């Protein structure tokens, strides 16, 4: 055998030492998925803690309009598809609500961002586009809504991992914002990752939400992913009357109403965070918001900037982007996901173009989970799983994040309901703190297994959830114990932090709202094993007409 070069030996020793240090926190060993599959764990419900899932009132200072005239508000930043581009969004002017409203002309105010690497040297200027949207109802007595002017400006030519200062607004009025800042993502590469990525779902705008965001901000994230269900404006009638359960309290309304000002309240509350930390959003069921002519998702599609065009998508419902050495695929659980549809064809092309030597990590997100064991929404997205799971498995997706179920659950590596060392880890984190409160019952507990006919999603339709045909639950619709694929579940509000350390190791930490800042609820190293689970790349011809 030949002699190992000293430089190689030093690198191997260094990596070994670093990983040993990474494997311990406060003296306790952190488990890794290589140690799995783990024995299922259910943390007993703390009945003394249900959180304060009561919505902030409209007179709370954190949701009130504090700007005047055409000054920008509800400012937030989001990523484009690569590190060298950012979106800046904001709203000018006041919304209108009532029976007789008139949309503002978006051209009334310019969409301008001044930015630069020095606070007092913002010499670059970018211009974008503006729009308004309306929520209209064809029934007498319901109040209609039209938004302020929404602005989206894309900044390009940015340097990686660099702090930029910016102001947004219209300098000709003048009506410019205060100076804000953001940091770009690292350039894509196998050793280049954002420091901390916060993951939240089903956030709402309650006192519990404020606890979630306070805890999240204390962890100083570089990026935030919101896995659907932001404002919960659709828990309200158009007159501002709200309830924890819309269908329970307002079963006789001719259409599912919304109170759109809750979106404005939400945007104001979130500004201190998302004006400096990019927020990437994907739609949830509470963004559907039906209105006149069967229109849906109007607020969602208008208020957020998406890198759809940059990532080759034709829709705001699905897109992708890079954050350092991670490729994120944001999928629509409420858009056509069948194999003949646009989303599936786009996803197939997007995954085929991923170079795992540049972005080793592949993370997918969508709202309704496939592997939740709670009674709420149990196997609701089974048709999506049947259509899409094979494709995600083929391309070696490492982690899946979902919301929808208002609790926390982490799976073992799983594929087609079977433990599989090459399957992704599925994490349900719909525990942001919304008004509908927590999910607390499990489908495997006596008397809690729902009837199959009640499980399909009402918006997407279809029926794919049949009894299991193999394994311990063969012939049944639910297991009679916590399923083997469920590693950890707990009913608490909170958020998660993903820290990718290198090409193979990522630290996942879930934080509960009721704990002291910095105290962890669930922590595990998610480990990629590319030698054990190789991904066979597809060679595609971008210009092929085939």
UniProtKB/TrEMBL annotation:
This is Purple acid phosphatase. It comes from Gossypium stocksii. The keyword Repeat does not apply. Residues 72-184 form the Purple acid phosphatase N-terminal domain. It is an enzyme of class 3 (hydrolase). GO terms for cellular component: extracellular region. InterPro entries: Calcineurin-like_PHP, Metallo-depent_PP-like, MPP_PAP, PAPs-like, PAPs_C, PAPs_N, Purple_acid_Pase-like_N. It catalyses: a phosphate monoester + H2O = an alcohol + phosphate. The keyword Membrane does not apply. Residues 196-408 form the Calcineurin-like phosphoesterase domain. Keywords: Glycoprotein, Hydrolase, Iron, Metal-binding, Secreted, Signal, Zinc.
């Amino acid at each position: 055998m030949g002699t190992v070069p000293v430089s190689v030996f030093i690198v191997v020793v260094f990596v070994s030492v670093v990983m040993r240090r990474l494997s311990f926190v406060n003296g306790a060993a952190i488990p890794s998925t290589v140690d799995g599959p783990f024995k299922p764990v259910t943390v007993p419900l703390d009945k003394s803690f249900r959180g304060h899932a009561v919505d902030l009132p409209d007179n709370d200072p954190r949701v009130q309009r504090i700007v005047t005239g055409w000054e920008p508000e509800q400012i937030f930043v989001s990523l484009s598809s690569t590190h060298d581009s950012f979106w800046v969004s904001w709203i000018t002017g006041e919304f209108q609500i009532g029976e007789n409203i008139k949309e503002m002309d978006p051209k009334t105010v310019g969409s301008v961002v001044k930015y630069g690497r020095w606070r007092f040297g913002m010499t670059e200027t970018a211009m974008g586009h503006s729009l308004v949207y309306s929520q209209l109802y064809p029934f007498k007595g319901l109040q209609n809504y039209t938004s302020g002017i929404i602005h989206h400006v894309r900044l390009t030519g940015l340097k990686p991992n660099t702090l930029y200062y910016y102001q947004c607004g219209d300098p000709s009025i003048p009506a410019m914002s205060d100076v804000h800042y953001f940091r770009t993502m690292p350039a894509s590469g196998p050793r280049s990752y954002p420091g901390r990525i916060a993951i939240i779902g089903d956030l709402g705008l309650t006192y519990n939400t404020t606890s979630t965001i306070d805890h999240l901000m204390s962890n100083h994230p570089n990026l935030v992913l919101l896995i659907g269900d932001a404002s919960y404006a659709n828990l309200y009638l158009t007159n501002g009357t709200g309830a924890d359960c819309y269908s329970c309290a307002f079963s006789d309304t001719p259409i599912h109403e919304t109170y759109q000002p809750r979106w404005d309240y939400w945007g104001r509350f979130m500004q201190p965070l998302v004006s400096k930390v990019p927020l990437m959003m994907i739609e949830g069921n509470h963004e559907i918001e039906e209105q006149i002519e069967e229109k849906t998702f109007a607020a969602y599609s208008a208020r957020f900037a998406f890198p759809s065009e940059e990532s080759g998508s034709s829709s705001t419902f699905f897109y992708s982007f890079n954050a350092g050495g991670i490729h994120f695929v944001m999928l629509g659980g409420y858009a056509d996901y069948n194999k003949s549809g646009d989303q599936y064809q786009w996803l197939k092309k997007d995954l085929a173009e991923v170079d795992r030597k540049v972005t080793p990590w592949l993370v997918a997100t969508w709202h309704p989970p496939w592997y939740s064991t709670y009674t709420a929404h149990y196997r609701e997205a089974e048709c999506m799983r049947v259509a899409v799971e094979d494709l995600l498995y083929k391309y070696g997706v490492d982690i899946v994040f979902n919301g929808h179920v208002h609790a926390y659950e982490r799976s073992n590596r799983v594929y087609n309901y079977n433990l599989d060392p090459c399957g992704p880890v599925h994490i349900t984190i719909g525990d942001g703190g919304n008004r509908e409160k927590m999910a607390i019952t499990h489908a495997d507990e006596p008397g809690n297994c729902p009837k199959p006919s009640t499980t399909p999603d009402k918006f997407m339709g279809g029926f794919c959830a049949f009894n299991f045909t193999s394994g311990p639950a063969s012939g049944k619709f639910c297991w009679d114990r916590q399923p083997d694929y469920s590693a950890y579940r707990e009913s608490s509000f909170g958020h998660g932090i993903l820290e990718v350390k290198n090409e193979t190791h990522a630290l996942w930490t879930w934080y509960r709202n009721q704990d002291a800042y910095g105290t962890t609820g669930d922590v595990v190293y998610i480990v990629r094993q590319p030698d054990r689970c190789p991904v066979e790349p597809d060679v595609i011809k971008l210009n092929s007409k085939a």
